[in-house]
Structures are given as structure tokens and as C-alpha cells.
Amino acid sequence: MTRRITWTLLVLTSVLLVLAVVPLAVSLTAREHVAYRDSQRAATRVIAAAAEEHLSDKKPPTVMRQELDAAARAGDCAAVYDAAGRLVASTPCTAAQGEEAEELVEAVLAGHEPEPPELEGSLLAAEPAGEVRRPTGAVVLARSAGPLDARTMAIWGWSATVGVAGLAASALLSVRLARWVSRPLSTLDASARRLGEGALDARAEVGAGPPEVRRLAATFNTMAARTEALVHGHRAVIADVSHQLRTPLTALRLRVDVLAAEAEGDTAAELGAAQEEIARLSRLVDGLLAVARAEQATPRPTAVRVDEVIAERVAAWSPVAEEHGVRLAAASEGPALSIALGAGHLEQILDNLIANAVEASDAGGSITLGHGTVRGMARVFVRDDGPGMNDEAKAVASRRFGNPEARGTGLGLAIVHRLVTVNGGTARLEDTPGGGLTVVLDLPLWPEDGHGWNEA
Q1: Closest C-alpha among 446, 175, 165, 412 to residue 284
Q2: 146 φ/ψ sector (left φ>0, alpha ψ -120 to 50, else beta)
Q3: What are the pLDDT digits (tens) for 94-119?
Q4: Chain segment 39-79, per-residue pLDDT in tens
């Protein structure tokens, strides 16, 4: 943002400076040129007035010579011509003579006002001696263009200096303004990223930047504080519920176990059924608590090797799968992938999916785990050849108790969905070719340079 603001202001300032300084410099240069020309023509008229006295009044050329000497001392070259265009007198230098000067004299003697040419390094001016329409002669004065060029260069030099100084001042102010605006926004962005990664104590600085940014930071801090209070409150409730439910369930199970050990006949059968219901209730409580924890999770992503976790979970669950007569295996190894996931979340996700698949598969079935990459995301799948699900069951499978036909608690896919989505991924259910269910997870890849997640 700092760079964009700075460049925008610099471009705007540059355009304004060009639109203001260049026309001003052009105007001053034109005025200087006109003033220089007027001064040259005035000096030419003075010599022409003295030449008229000599050419028309037949007075001695003393005054004319004095004016020519004065022009020579000033660095000008002048020449006086009679009505026939013949050279009468001139300064020692010959810059006022030649073809261009003769053409000017011819035009002046014809009663015209020619546009004086600009020769290399000098400017020519011509004036009639006497009346314009019936002149008795003409005067040509050549003046060096050096002083005019020096003044023109000075004008453009000062204009360039003003432009550069204005641009430098604009750059300094642009950078300061951009930092004043963007620095608190960057801090707010970092705080929001830390909050999203699970640092519930992340707060933004509210004492810097424009009033709108300060208000935004204050609002963010209020939201973060409320989020922290809600999360901590939910965690406390989960802990209390876990303690309050598990303790009486454990005591109840122990008492029923004692009674079942001494019972016989129908009483033993009834107590056995009660033990199964208590065990089911315990699993249900554990599942609900797991879902609640997943919903309240605010993970800080870490680099997780997918191939290693899959190999570990296959090794851990293979004995359980063998007891059910199910073959559990990993697909042919793809490239080693690292994903950005909360610590332990991939293990918990795979445990729930494998448990569901084992429960759903019949003896002789198979379960396959694999991974790959699709469109910049890591893809993990768990495929079984069990009975599968119809479209209605798939639509509600991620809800608590969404599948009424589930053999377990019906909470496994709900836990998976919460853990996947809280880590920025997606989960969906597909039919396995030939029958069965495939759970497809798309999870964010860990940046190759190792930056971008735990920077805060």
C-alpha cells in the first residue's frame, strides 16, 4: 500500500509540475526573446536616425560614426546602406554584411518590414533611415545570441530546479503520508492474521494513523476481546460438562459392572444391556465434546507431512481393521507434501474417517488412503468399498447425528468437517467407483519458503 500511495502521489505531482512549470518557462523564454529583439531594434533605430542626418540632410557623418563606434564597443556589428543599397559605413566586424544583410536591405528599401533571420550565433535586425515608405537608406545590426541563450538556459535551469525540488518535496511528503496511513493498517492486518491463527490475545495499535483507521483498530480490539471471552467461556463450559458428565457415568458403569458380576439369568442379561447403553452413552458424550472442541478450535497452522501421517495412521489402525476382516492400505506414494494444519488435526481427521470406514465396511472389504495436489491445494482421500451413502445422507452427513443409519455415534463426519473448515480446507463425499464412499479433503499447502503462517 505504501508503494502504491507514494507512486500515485508522485505521478500526480509530476503531472501538475509539468503542466505548471513548462508553460511558465515557455512564456518567460518568449518574453525574454521579445525583450532582446526590442532592445536590438531600438539600438538599430538610434544608428538609423544618425544615418538619416548624413544621407538626407547631407550633414557630416560624425554623429553616425559615433553611433557605429558605440555599437562596436557594445559588441554589436552594424552597417549603413544608402538608397541604392550600397554600403556607406560599418563597424570593423562584418557580421552585418553578406547575402542575408543585403536581402534585408532590399526589403527595407522597398518599404517592407521583413522578419529578421536568426543566423548561427547571431541575430540580424534592419531599420529604414528616414520614412518607411521612402527611406534614404537602411541600417543592419547583428547582435550575438549568446546573452539570449544564456538567459534562456537560466530560465529553464531555474524551472528544472523548481520542478525537481517540488518533486523531491512531494516524494518526501508522499512517503510520510503513505506510511502514516499504511503502517497502522499493516499492524491491524498482522493482528487479524494472528487472531485467525489462534492467538486470541492479538490486539491492534489504536494510537496511530488517520481517525478512521484508529476507529477501525478500536473496533477490531473490541471484537477480538469479545471473541476471546466467548472462546474461553465455551472452553470452560466444555471442561465443566466433560467433568460433570463423565464422573457420574463412570460411577454408574462401575456399579452396574459390580451388579452384573453377581447377577444370574434374566437379571444378568438386563444388566448386560444396561452396560452396553452406558458404554454407548459414554461414546456419545465423548463425541459431542469432540465436536464442541473442534467448533471452538482456533489453530495455529504448522507444517504437517501428509505422507508420514498417513503411514502412521495406517500402521496404527491396521490391527483394528484386521479384527473386522478389512484390509487397510495407503495408495502408491505420491510426492512428499507439507500442509498447513493445526497440530494433531490431520491425525484426528484420519482417525475419525478410518473409524467410520471400518464400521461401515463388511468383512473382506478394503480401505485406501492417498494424497496428491490439485489446483494449488493438497488433496487427501479415504476410500472404502462399503455400502456408501445416498444423496440425502451425504447432504446432512456433516451435521451432528446427520446420518440416522450410522452404526456409531454419527458424529465422526461432523468432527472432520469442523476441523477441515477451521483450517481453511474443504471436505466432500463422493461415490467410490464400483460401490462405497470416498471422503475427499482439499487442504492448504504449506508455503515452500516457510513464511506466511507463523510470522506473528
Answers
A1: 412
A2: alpha
A3: 887 888 888 888 888 888 887 777 76
A4: 988 998 999 888 888 888 788 888 889 988 998 998 889 99
Cell numbers at residue 310, please? Answer: 498417513
- What dotted CATH number matches 2-150? 3.30.450.20
What's the CATH fold of domain 197-298?
A: Helix Hairpins (1.10.287)
Residues 6+ apart with CB under 8 A from 168: none
Digit-coded pLDDT (tens) for 270-304: 888 887 777 777 766 666 666 566 555 556 778 89
CATH number of the structural domain 302-444: 3.30.565.10
pLDDT in tens, 5-16: 777 777 888 888
What's the confidence (pLDDT) of residue 298? 59
What would the grid cell of residue 412 be? 465422526
List the one residue out of 329, 349, 358, 336 whose CA is nearest residue 420.
349
Q: What residue spans define the domains of the chain?
A: 2-150, 197-298, 302-444
| C-alpha torsion 86→88→92→95, nearest 10 | -30
Q: What is the dihedral of CA 199, 200, 202, 206, to 10 degrees?
A: 160
pLDDT of residue 369: 92
Residues 6+ apart with CB under 8 A from 95: 77, 119, 122, 142
Contacts of residue 302, defined as CB under 8 A and 6 or more positions apart, other chains included, come to 340, 341, 342, 343, 453, 454
The whole-number pLDDT of residue 220 equals: 84
